[in-house]
């Protein structure tokens, strides 16, 4: 696949065939076979729609290639560290940012986004039957996550779909639980250069298409908990990107991460024990993210990096947002402040209904602290224990 085509489509075939091999041959089960079949059907359908849309972009909306993406803001964090909350707060600055809804990150094509906008315009005038249909789909597809990570096709969400389609994403764990076989996906910054070149072309093209379709004069606001392993790659594409790094005590974040991403395993791999190697491999991904950021953080442009502790965000959300804006020298408007105060009033009384145990997933606190000693010491988490 030539570089000239990577901006239109790119699939990491090694990962594609490994998913099929592991689910259907090496670790065969009838449930995984059915899920893999469904995955292949959906993936093929998305491929056809997305490829058609991106090819049409080159004809109908070729000016997207000249779209500038200046000083984008990326919220990057260890999973389960408050990124969704912070992202949705910053999204309230509607005059400044353009941000992906879930369907944007899946169908990153100017043609498709504009077509969906037209359908939405018609839908609003005929009683919203399509919106009701997709709300129903959301309630069925994402029901298992509603208390962990509420999401939906029309909600602000991560840009991970732009990496899931090329299959350079640890999110493949949702359909294939054998992540010990995909260690190369944890830190894409360390993947072979030919892979990174194609990924950069695809991602940059996707971001340009998205901005061209949704807000040509606005700043991209992205959040992604899996992009820690891609920070260098992202900064090679957008050298002046602003990075907000949220940090949470790994003793709380790691088991929460496992609980979230293993949710579909109850359906396709219920025989896997929670303290078995598959769950541990999933937890190790989160641990490796902590270690990798600790390793590279001093290499980043400090003026474009803001680190925020999860506990500070939860305790003082408005003040935390003010600190981010001050650090990056961004205007903080009265309208945005009013939106923030209204939103934080609604979420102030929220308390998670879930608690998670490291031991349930085959880890011990002692083992985690040993692996992440530099992180624990750097952020003072040992004192909090």
Mean pLDDT, nearest integer? 90
Low-confidence stretches: 145-149
Structural class: alpha/beta
Characterize the main sheet.
5 strands, parallel
**Principal-axis shape:** globular
**Order of strands across the main sheet:** 2-3-1-4-5
Count of DSSP strands: 5
Q: N-to-C SSE series?
A: HHHEHEHHHHHEHEHHHEHHHHHH
Strand content: 5-15%
Spatial gap, N to C terminus: 51 Å
Would you write up a description of this structure?
With 385 residues, the chain is α/β, with parallel strands linked by helices. Helices cover 54% and strands 6% of the residues. It has 19 helices and five strands. A five-stranded parallel β-sheet has the order 2-3-1-4-5, sandwiched between helices. Helix 2 runs antiparallel to helix 3, helix 6 runs parallel beside helix 9 and helix 11 crosses helix 13. It starts with a helix and ends with a helix. About 1% of the residues have low confidence.
